[in-house]
Each structure stands twice: as C-alpha cells, then as structure tokens.
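user: Kindly work through both lines:
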Amino acid sequence: MTEKRSFDVVITGGGIMGSSTAYHLVKMAPGLKVVVVERDPTYARASTTLSMSNVRIQFSLKENIQISQVAFEVLERFEDEMAVGDRRPRIFFRREGNLFLHAEGGLEAARRAFELQRRLGCRVEWWSPQEVRARYPLYETEGYAAATFGPDDGHFDAYAVLMAYRGKAKSLGAEFVTGEAVRIQTRKGRVEAVALESGEVLPTSCVVNCGGAWAADLAATAGVKLPVIPVKRQVFALDTAVKPEGPLPLTVLPSGLYFRSETGGLILLGKSLAEDPVGFDFRWEEKRFTEILWPELVEFVPAWDRLKIVRGWAGLYDVNTLDGNAILGEWPELKGLYLATGFSGHGLQQGPAVGRYLAERITGAPLSLDLSLFGPQRILENRPLSEGGIV
C-alpha cells in the first residue's frame, strides 16, 4: 500500500494568489513542503488571465493603496527577481495611467481619496475637465466636474506574471499538481487534509484557499460560509475608425464604464452591471456592447460612432457581497484554514502583496504590511469595511 504524501501547506487554486503565495512561502522557508492544486494548468478560465491586467493607486482605503504601492515596487524589479537560470520573464509593464472622471455629486469623496493618496506618497494629479480635453481631444468632458490621474498606474501581461510566479516557485521547491480540490477534511476544529476529485487525499495541517470565484464552494465543505459569489464580467476588444493620437489611459467614468488602449491599435472596454449573472458562465454577448455600452461610450467619445467588435470574452469576479474587499487570513473557527478570496475585481494587482502577507502569517515572519483589516473575523461579525470614493 502506497503511503500518502503529507505537505506542510496545500494551496487550492494556482492563479495569481496561489502562485504568489507558494513563491513567498518557499522563499521565506526553504524546505517547506508546499503543493499547489490547480484544476486547469492552461488557465483558460482563470480570472487572472481573463482580466484587463490593470494596477492602480487610486483607492480610498489606506490598505488598498498600500497594496498597490507594493505591486508597483514588485513589478518594477519583477523581471530580474523572477528569472530562473537564463530565463527572464517579459511582463510588458506599461505605465500609461488611470484616469477617473468625477461628476459633481462625487467630488467630495474623490477629493478625500485624492488627499489620502497624496499623504501616503502617491503620485496622483487633480485635473479640470479642460485639462482632460487638452490631453485627450477625443473625450467630451462637458458635464464632468473634475478628474484624477495616476501616472504610475498601468497594465501588464497577466499570463506572463502568473507563469513567472509559478516557474520561480517550482524552482525553489514548490510542487504544482493538476487536480480539483473537492473537500477540505477537518477534525476537532483543525484542517486535516484536502481531498481531490481523483480520490487522492493530501494530508496537511494548513490549507490556503485561493480558489477565487470557486473559493466559497470549497470552503463550504469545511462548514465555512463565505459571502463570495462568482459574477460574470465581459470585455470587448474594439477597432475604432478614428484612432487616438497616442495610448489612452484606463479611463473610468462615474457610471463604471471603463476602457483603455491595447496593443495593435485596439480599445478594450468593459462595465460591471447590477444585472450581471451569478454563476460559472463564460459566454460573452455582442448585444451587451451594441445595445447598452456603445451608446454611453459615444456620448463620451463621439468619434467612436464607427467601430467594429474584433472579439470579446467573459471571466469571473469573486465578489464579496459584504463589502467588495478581500477576505484574508485564518478562519477564526477552523485552525489551519487560510483564505484569500473576495477580491471583487482587484485580485490581480493585489497578488504580490497578498501572497507575501499570507506567507508571513503562515511562517510567523514579521509582517511587511499589516493587512489584518481584511481578516475574516469581520465576516462572522457582519461588519463591512467602508471605502468611500474610488473602489
């Protein structure tokens, strides 16, 4: 009879959270037996690879801003630090900025967020509508009160970052296995093992649930109820008849409509809507753009009344219905179960800081950044975080 292999840490989900956590664990504690269980090593439906790969400083909660500051620092040196032998990743980090337009009714919250960002040492600028129009002549800014611009914000190749974390973690001793975690086994208030769909059981005293949109289902097998649901989001790639003079920042309207330039002269666009379906649905709908989003887009960029949809795709947000913020740390009622879920669309950019934080918590290392505000105790207490302004 083959003896079961046991692990110090089992990570369920090998996207940005799982791979970053694995990397930081084996970096901090060489020799630690870490395994990452990922159902699809192609990452075809992973939220990491289906995102618009944005990173921004413009949040209104201090800890979210600090998480982005860590991401900026990490991405700047990422290609050097993630090299394995002579293989150096290329992540194409383009700092083309994030531009948030603000209506009159949102000015007070926007100003508070702006001042907090500045106090924390962030580069962010307050623009008048006239300044926006001068820099981006295609934009129709009448009716807007102001805008904030983060020049250090930008986007990068999410798949390259993910593969780099995964490759570096493996080079340091972490294992990655293909399989689906279907149950967390517990005994006397502690995690004991993770059962896979294949029938294999991985004994462990520490599980890190990084399952994203699937995290709540797995947590439920251990009796843990999380307010996290999978919500479909759609992105459209557009070829406009009129091209901008240069790259456009990720531009966000007060309604939530957002778009940015993409390589090849395309525009990527999306918007989360209240009626977005809950569930594991990866179909995208052209009429969503033509009937709902295009009319709104043309009001802001009249020159884009002529364009064609080149392609589209759908991915999932792991939406925290309590407050839209991450759930991080050990579940208070089950020893050894750590959570990293509920990012509600912010996960990719938060991966570097979150992976480091979880590794520090698990290994007992000093905290580089205290993210205990996002601890799961607030879920048990039904105590949402408050973030007014830019979310």
About this structure: The radius of gyration is 21 Å. The chain has two domains: 9-83+157-227+322-380, 98-151+229-318.
